Amino acid sequence: MDTVTIPREEYDRLKKLEQVDWELVGKFKKGLDDVKAGRVKRVR
Q: If DSSP states are collapsed to H, E and C, what string results for the chain?
């Protein structure tokens, strides 16, 4: 394993990008499943 030294600010920024809102991902997946199953109405 290699070790890399980066500034603390960069580390904090990368850690924030790493966090995932799993609830939002689940809702998005459910929406895609609805589209795939044809349970979506077109709205104008």
A: CCCCCCCHHHHHHHHHHHCCCHHHHHHHHHHHHHHHHCCCCCCC
